[in-house]
Amino acid sequence: MNAFMTMPYLRFHFILRNVLRIFFDASDDAEAPSLSSMATAVFCISQILFRRNGGAMAIEVYTGEGWLASSMANGAAVAQLAQSEACASDVPLLITLEGQRKSVERLMSRDLPTASVWLQTTPIPSLIKRLEKTFEAKQLTLVALEGSAYPSELCPKGCRRGETGLFSNILDCFRCPQPQKNQSALREICDHFLANRTLELAIIDTGGPAVEEWYVLETYCRPRSVFIVNSVFALHEGWIAARLRSAGWKEVLSGRLRWGNGFPHMLSLVEETGWVYMMDFGYFG
Q1: pTM of the entire predicted model
Q2: Which residues of the chain have pLDDT under 50?
Q3: Residue 14: what are its φ and ψ, rounded to 5°?
Q4: Domains in the chain, number
Q5: Is 99 in contact with 67 (CB distance < 8 Å)?
Q6: How do strand 57-61 and strand 93-98 relate by DSSP bridges?
Q7: What is the DSSP string of 184-233?
Q8: Phi and psi at residue 161, in whole multiples of 5°?
Q9: Do residues 42 and 71 lie in contact, with contact meaning Cβ atoms separated by under 8 Å?
């Protein structure tokens, strides 16, 4: 496990990228611009990361249809099976957040290789105790938190996915305050659980720019790698990828995603988008 941590940057980058390509290219979906190919990529990434660091953490914001949460759990389960007995006590912490109850219900109905638990983010002051009780069994568990990573009541006009699915005034994206203690579920999770472990993977799929969500992730969670959905889509998360590139992060894997079939009224120029997986290799230099 420590061998990866001491590798020079270029060697680690080369090995990880090529191992991922071997995993990903072997799948039937690797070249197709589809949800299936994206889910395959997350499965491969999760498996490799948790083989290297079985006691780490992964967070998804937000669940949506549950494709990526399921893939994250599948990869972690395969990684755990491959671990030696000496590392058997290292259990990944898997969390996905979602504000829409129907999406959580769909995820809970999936045939997952892990245990699954559905919790409310509120009341936030008791969230950590409820999560600790869930994780104390040392069993690989996917926790679905129903609620927002960034509290909607803190910034009701901000860039968030409203109940109608529509964006508010785009200028309000830049006017939301920093969440304080016991205001943001995501901040509380990172403040507590990352005291003695790392956030190996953050999946960003917000259906919008994710300004507030990324602020919390960058400030309090400090992920080592990020999987960004809709990385080249208007009014979505591509700015995060650009910000990470300017900070020295490297693209490890990317792919295409086509929304046209699922959303038939979209303009043709935005029917095809993409996703990107990026890593901060500074942690491993």
Answers
A1: 0.87
A2: 1-9, 28-30, 161, 164-165, 285
A3: -65, -45
A4: 1
A5: no
A6: parallel
A7: -HHHHHHHHHTTSS-EEEEEE--SS--HHHHHHIIIII--SEEEEESTTS
A8: -85, 105
A9: yes
